[in-house]
Specification:
Helix content of chain B: 25-40%
Strand content of chain A: under 5%
Number of strands of chain B: 14
Structural class of chain B: alpha/beta
Strand content of chain B: 25-35%
Order of helices and strands of chain A: HHHHHHHHHHHH
Largest sheet of chain A: none
Number of strands of chain A: 0
Order of helices and strands of chain B: EEEHEEHEHHHEHEHEEHEHEEHEHH
Radius of gyration of chain A: 21 Å
Number of helices of chain B: 12
Largest sheet of chain B: 6 strands, mixed
Number of helices of chain A: 12
Shape of chain B: elongated
Distance between the termini of chain A: 28 Å
Distance between the termini of chain B: 44 Å
Radius of gyration of chain B: 25 Å
Oligomer: heterodimer
Largest interface: A-B, 27 and 30 residues
Chain lengths: 262, 319
């Protein structure tokens, strides 16, 4: 497993000397901060209105503002991730193939699995780094909520983001292993992402026998459980199998480079 | 050290390597000589475990390159056609990365890196980013990468491409210095490179082996092994008739005299059949002026062209 660690180290080094990581992290943090601010403002206004109404009619307020913020904010994070993950992974293999360094890796005593896992864990680490500053906003919100909101909702939310992100990174890495061209890798990964959206929309709109299947297949539907603080075993299994499937496909794809020309 | 048996690689209908067999002994430098597209790179890629062969076997240090790929990869240092470098890394971190993926233990890594840097004359560039290096330096980083884990077998695909003449000499000396402790295969389409560095040469063309021998033997033992060059102002027709009567004389080429010079005649002679004295005697007998007469060994260049040009083109040339 020394090979896996070497690949991981190399990938991390590569991310942090290339401008793309900084650009993506910058865009992500800027957008998430702007939207967090907007969501918080909207929810606070709404909760004032609820309070006023409850005072008018005398009924106790049942509006759970922090949960509302968390649900909206994690929903927004999912949207950002869907569009940023393909950019994080587009070069993972495509660049390596283009530069000819794949030939070095594949003639070294490291297995394809070590290469693929090393790269996957590196992209997941970068993703975690990108995500972590957003926790500050939510931690502050939880600390100032009254009654105090349980931490597990926040933790479940982040577990969901990491699983969703891991799935999209595994998918994007697989796409990147299919081509030498980073741009094509990004475009195909976007197309796959759009397909995920479509499945989700269909799962919401249709009814009948297909709905249950579509709902289970929807990457986003599983994520919503987490943002409500629910960690469902079937969702864990879903994301686990999604990641394992695409890691496996990437290993096969890397291995198949040996059998293709050039 | 390296045994290749009946190796064949086809890409669909194209056969890049066609039933190639050869062996390389321990400590030897084997040159792979052939025009571009002859199958040199494909053969090397199979030996390094980068791609599998369609047919046939190759063994490195007793391990099959396909079934024991990991064992083979541990023992091989490989410089592909383009140096496989990461432009964003410094020379030193790059070599450290390669040493790690080649399983060099942590305590030996700094020593090995220093050694590779010293051998390739890169010590003063160790903390420079690879993207800032010139083509020649990148090529040297590529060579350093192939040496960093002190492998038993070193495979170099066109190691002197992109280097200036001084660097080419340095790299050749480096390669010669590595022989003995390492078994080396290098490919090239530059002929003098082979005669200068290699113990043995495999000439490959269109995926097939055209010849395997030492550079010396190839130069001296080829069919029609000798050419005789004569400068004489003899009339062309009688001269041709005279030469045709000498047993062992082959093709005759006559260049007309240039201003202030003499007519130059080249006669091909069969191997081991010295006919220079007979030609001299006949010329003197006819009373023609003789200015020069000497034997010319076929250069590796001639052999190469002879072995690698199309049979059709060759037939045309000799008729």
């Amino acid at each position: 497993m020394g090979g896996l660690y070497a690949i991981y180290r190399k990938e991390m080094g590569h991310y942090f000397v290339s401008p793309i990581a900084y650009i993506l992290i910058g865009i992500f943090l800027f957008l998430s901060a702007v939207f967090f601010n907007a969501i918080l403002t909207a929810v606070i206004n709404e909760s004032f209105q609820m309070e006023m109404r409850s005072m008018q009619f005398g009924a106790p307020s049942s509006f759970d503002a922090p949960s509302e913020v968390i649900r909206s904010f994690f929903g927004l994070l999912a949207t950002l991730i869907l569009f940023l993950a393909p950019l994080l992974t587009m070069g993972v293999y495509a660049e390596e193939r283009k530069r000819g360094t794949m030939e070095l890796l594949m003639t070294s005593p490291v297995s394809e699995l070590e290469i693929v896992l090393g790269k996957f864990f590196a992209s997941l680490s970068l993703f975690t780094v990108m995500l972590s500053p957003t926790a500050i906003y939510l931690i502050f919100m939880v600390l100032h909520s009254d009654p105090r909101m349980p931490w597990r909702i926040l933790l479940a939310g982040y577990a969901g983001v990491l699983l969703l992100g891991g799935s999209l990174l595994a998918l994007g890495s697989f796409v990147s292993s299919l081509t030498e061209n980073q741009l094509i890798a990004a475009v195909i990964a976007f197309a796959a992402t759009l397909f995920i959206w479509v499945i989700d929309i269909l799962a919401r709109k249709t009814d009948g026998g297909a709905t249950a299947v579509l709902q289970y297949l929807s990457v986003i539907r599983h994520y919503e459980d987490f943002t409500r603080g629910v960690i469902d075993t079937s969702s864990l299994i879903y994301y686990g199998s999604f990641i394992v499937l695409f890691v496996f496909l990437t290993v096969r794809s890397v291995d198949s480079m040996r059998w293709r020309r050039a | 050290m390296i045994e290749v048996q009946d190796l064949t690689k086809s890409y669909g209908a194209v056969t890049a390597v066609d039933h190639v067999s050869f062996t390389v002994n321990k400590g030897e430098i084997l040159g792979f000589l052939g025009p571009n597209g002859a199958g040199k790179t494909t053969t090397m890629r199979i030996l390094t475990g980068y791609m599998p062969a369609t047919h046939g076997t190759a063994r490195v240090a007793g391990f099959d390159v396909f079934t024991d790929s990991m064992e083979v990869r541990r023992r091989i240092g490989y410089l592909p056609e383009n140096p496989p470098v990461y432009p964003d890394m410094t020379v030193e971190t790059y070599l450290d990365f390669v040493a790690r993926i080649k399983n060099v233990p942590a305590e030996r890594r700094p020593g090995r890196i220093d050694d590779a840097l010293r051998k390739t004359n890169l010590e003063d560039r160790r903390s420079e980013l690879i993207k800032r290096l010139s083509r020649g330096y990148k090529q040297r980083v590529g060579i350093a990468q192939a040496l960093v884990h002190d492998p038993e077998v070193i495979i170099l695909d066109e190691p002197t491409v992109g280097l200036d003449p001084k660097q080419i000499i340095e790299v050749r000396n480096l390669i010669k210095g590595l022989a003995g402790n390492h078994t080396i295969i290098l490919s090239t389409h530059i002929l003098p490179e082979v005669s200068m560095t290699c113990d043995r040469v495999v000439i490959i063309n269109k995926g097939k082996i055209a010849a395997v021998d030492t550079p010396q033997n190839l130069t001296s033992q080829l069919k029609g092994g000798q050419k005789i060059r004569i400068e004489t102002d003899a009339p062309e027709k009688p001269l041709r008739d005279m030469l045709a009567q000498i047993p062992g004389a082959g093709r005759v080429a006559i260049e007309p005299a240039r201003a202030g010079g003499h007519q130059a005649v080249t006669v091909e002679a069969a191997q081991g059949n010295d006919i220079r004295n007979q030609i001299a005697a006949k010329i003197v007998e006819h009373g023609w002026p003789l200015y020069e007469l000497h034997g010319v060994s076929l250069s590796l260049e001639d052999i190469f062209l002879e072995l690698t040009t199309d049979d059709a083109a060759h037939a045309q040339a000799s008729s």
